[in-house]
Amino acid sequence: MQTIKIHTTQNIDIDYEIAGLGERILAKLIDYVVFIPLWIIGFVVAVNGINDVGIGLYFIIVFVLFVFYDLVCEQFLNGQSIGKRVMKIKVISLNGNRATFGQYLLRWLLRLVDFTLTAYLGALIAAIVTENGQRIGDIAAGTVMVRTEPRTKIDNLVFKPSDDTYVPVFKEVGQITDNDIALIAEVIQNYTKTGNSVLVYNMAQRIKDHLGVVPPREMNDMLFLKTIVKDYSHISAQTESL
Length: 242
Hints:
The protein is mainly alpha-helical. The chain folds into two domains: 3-147, no CATH class; 154-240, no CATH class. The chain is built from ten helices and four strands. The chain has helices spanning 21-47, 52-76, 82-87, 101-109, 111-116, 121-129, 136-141, 178-194, 197-211, 221-240; strands at residues 3-7, 13-17, 89-93, 143-147. The strands form two sheets. It has a two-stranded antiparallel ribbon. Strand 1 (3-7) and strand 2 (13-17) form a beta hairpin. The longest helix has 27 residues, at 21-47. The chain is elongated, with a radius of gyration of 23 Å. It starts with a strand and ends with a helix.
């Protein structure tokens, strides 16, 4: 599986799996299927001779929804449409962060070149020849389509505290954010797949420096990162229960 190494704003390199061309095509087909019931309803109503003005207005609304569907979904569903979510792929910025509205807007506007004016050949050829499988809109916007399946879910981590009696080792975890924890989980997942211990070391050092903590001598970097997630999960759960 083709991957892309993204240097995040935390100066950590993360390997993402590039979304395959087949996955992207299937996601697009699923998105089209979403609109089939709306079109069918409109045609059925039109055949039955309902008010022409009302039918016209209905189709205009459906068409507008169709045109802006990708832009709205990606903005509010964190880089995904319904089809992308089903296929477990998403749009992210090349810096590893969530893409901005401006990036979503630019790649949406260039759909005109990728799909409409070139009959989908522009997007297809660009995705095949570019190193990161980017279509023209992605190249211009600085985005890339990646798979989400390998990404670690914090709620599914095996080292999550199991009961309320757990005592956090590092109470300083209150200084870090959900994004920091997600990145730590990504590093752990990456290590289990690639054995990249340098990635674990770099992440551990940054968290230690940020929190100003010194782990016990017997705690290695991997155990330190797992403990940080464990402590954060526990403290977050306690806070939400108040």
